[in-house]
Specification:
alpha+beta; six-stranded antiparallel sheet; three-stranded antiparallel sheet; 33% helix
């Protein structure tokens, strides 16, 4: 009985040992799986860290390269802006060149060409495209003799009258004097230009006129009409009415214009100068003294 019990106990223990062995095997298998899982996780973590480091390094290099390229990019951008500005300037110049601009304001007097025709430059008379007339600035072109040219200077004031504009008087200034004479009808003359200060609205290009250049001027001086001046025995003077008698009086004269002459000496303010007798056929004037009518000398 004891042997049977021992055998039964041994069999039971063997079965138990087999179960334990089976559990140990299972535990070993589980431990091996856990080790594999841990090892794989560590490997994946290391790989992920390495990849992150590589990406970070690449990003840093790209950022450094971008920073290094900033000056070059700015220069490229500035070059692009300059090129665009040059393009705009060229386009504006082309637009300006497409517009015909006159050198000054004026009225178109003649057009020598038509649309589509080629116009050559050069500035000579054969290449004139449009002729302009300056209506706001008028110049009187004239001539003077050799005896007067030495008296004239640039910027001298002149009184201008135009034959077609009766009663209108304009002022101007000498703007040009020819340095060399030209021969007109066998007489040497010098060209002169007088620019009119304020042209009359009725003044037209091509009209003829006369300019009287003022060589000198004085104010507050005694004057006598030019018609009263006489020359007797080479002595210039006037006739003065004194005590009812006409007396020839020598006078020293100064500057003169078309109507009056300055008296330097020989007369006093208030003297009565006689105007020469009117020509035959002229209407008689009452209250004339001997030889003609009286003129009171004054300033």
């Amino acid at each position: 009985a004891d042997l049977s019990t021992l055998q039964s106990t041994f069999a039971t223990q063997s079965v138990a040992a087999t179960g334990v062995k089976t559990k140990l095997t299972q535990a070993s298998t589980s431990l091996s799986g856990i080790n594999d899982a841990v090892t794989g996780a560590i490997v994946n973590a290391i790989t992920a860290v390495s990849s992150a480091q590589d990406r970070a390094t690449t990003s840093i290099r790209q950022a450094e390269s971008a920073v290094a390229n900033i000056p070059f990019n700015l220069q490229t951008a500035q070059t692009s802006i300059d090129n665009a500005n040059n393009t705009v300037i060229t386009a504006r110049q082309n637009l300006d060149n497409a517009i015909l601009t006159a050198p000054s304001a004026g009225i178109v007097a003649a057009v020598a060409n038509q649309i589509g025709e080629f116009v050559a430059g050069g500035g000579n008379n054969n290449s004139v495209f449009i002729t302009l007339t300056n209506a706001t600035s008028m110049v009187l072109h004239g001539t003077v003799g050799e005896a007067d040219i030495a008296k004239l200077k640039i910027a001298q004031v002149a009184n201008v009258t135009v034959d077609a504009l009766t009663g209108q008087r304009m002022t101007g200034r000498v703007t040009s004097l020819d340095p060399v004479a030209t021969i007109s009808q066998g007489v040497p003359v010098y060209g002169i230009d007088v620019a009119i200060d304020i042209p009359s609205s009725s003044l037209k290009a091509g009209m003829s006129g006369t300019a009287s250049v003022i060589l000198a001027s004085k104010q507050g001086v005694l004057t006598v009409p030019n018609t009263t001046i006489r020359t007797v025995n080479g002595q210039r003077g006037v006739q003065v009415l004194k005590d009812g008698e006409v007396v020839d009086t020598p006078v020293q004269f100064g500057i003169a214009n078309d109507t009056v002459t300055e008296v330097v000496s020989g007369l006093a303010e208030g003297d009565i100068v006689v105007i020469p007798q009117a020509r035959a056929g002229a209407s008689a004037q009452p209250n004339r003294g001997p030889g003609g009518g009286p003129v009171f000398i004054g300033r």
